[in-house]
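To the structural biology subgroup,

Please find below the input and predicted structure for FAD-binding oxidoreductase, which we are adding to the shared reference set this quarter. The sequence is reproduced verbatim from the submission form. If anyone notices a discrepancy with their own records, reply to this email rather than editing the shared folder directly, so we keep one authoritative version.
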Amino acid sequence: MLTMPVPDEDTIRRRSAIAAALRRIVPGEGVIEAPVEMRAFETDGLTAYRQMPLVVVLPETTAQVAAVLEYAHENGIKVVPRGAGTSLSGGALPLADGILLGMAKFNRVLEVDYANRCAVVQPGVTNLAITKAVEHKGFYYAPDPSSQIACTIGGNVAENSGGVHCLKYGLTANNVLGLEMVLVTGEVIRLGGKHLDSEGYDLLGVMTGSEGLLGVVTEVTVRILQKPETARAVLVGFPTSEDAGQCVADVISAGIIPGGMEMMDRPAIHAAEDFVHADYPLDVEALLIVELDGPQVEVDHLIERVSEIARANNSTTLRISTSEEERLLFWAGRKAAFPAVGRISPDYICMDGTIPRKRLPEVLQGMAELSRLHRLRVANVFHAGDGNLHPLILFDANDPDELDRAEKFGADILRLCVKVGGVLTGEHGVGIEKRDLMPEMFSEGDLAQQMRVKCAFDDKGLLNPGKVFPTLHRCAELGRMHVKGGTLPFADIPRF
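Predicted structure (tokenized):
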């Protein structure tokens, strides 16, 4: 089982005083301390782990966020930022001795600037709400996680979220232009903006994907795009997952960059079809959804080329959307795959790793072998075009042995991803789920350098501690010389 830092008992004893101080900063109903009311915040999307927070605070203004962080910094109190709580890696899991800083009330679209192709929004605005705010003018926000109806843009920034269209249009990092953020000291800073390039170090890039360890985002400027002239989807079934994986590799190697390219295996296909009734073929082992967009003549040409590649890889079924409604129905099944799988298993863990596309057939075969080894079913849903895998490990959390096997199964999948040249996460973040696997990918020196970045922003280690880094160091420890055999290394060098 994953563990968290040992709670500070002195902080817990000061709970009432801390709540009272927070009420002076955020009056009214902005502070929650009753256990029954805090229960809604005890977990996030990684529901196998639960922990009640010390206290919950729900600010409404940047000034309130700054005051909360300044108070926490001065008094040595940990803070866990939280958006909609949809994190699948335990990134928003509370701490028993920490303030849970909920950003849900920051839910306004502040400005839409069509001339500069951007929108300024608060972090509690949902991903889908950005598109809804601009679609009447023919625009949309490109990154579209499956949880887009619920997940917030602040959480998307924290995890560098992607979605089915990130293959062509990029992840959150490629679509965020600027941030307003509050440092742990309470200082408010701005990074980037409506301008295309920023001077100096790419701190905007550092913040995107930082998982709440460096600061709290209070405003986001995002890029909006005009909807393409034409968008059509191809639904292709294959007799094996390996055939589908090879088709993905062949499409990309042919120089075709679809708007989206997603893959599901048999368990995911059947679950999605039972849930959404998207008319998916049920006699195939794998299903690809390939969307082509752009000028109509280009789309027609690319559909023909993709169809040829699919047939060369033994496809058994191939349907091309003939209307916008049918295209959206194709995608509805894919976007509902996660909740659909929830109907066929008491619990599941949604993993997230990324591999080189050409290794997809090999990894699929490896996951099938791991499924037999750990005696647990797995349903696979992939952002196939960019190699981002989302295996869903099915288990029963009421059975401690199954939970243990599910965790080991997931760890083995991620080790396999790293072994073939991939990475531990594509868009869900490290959180607590992958924290102890970081040494599989990074050396001790690598992790120390990453920790130094955190220390530059958070000198006391108060922001979201226990996440990402497998060993929780104090910042001062990183500069210490290590004694071995009773002597310092290079003892002859003068030290001051």
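Summary notes: Residues 177 and 221 are 5 Å apart (CA to CA). Residues 230-339 form a domain with the Alpha-Beta Plaits fold (CATH 3.30.70.2190).

Regards,
Lab coordination
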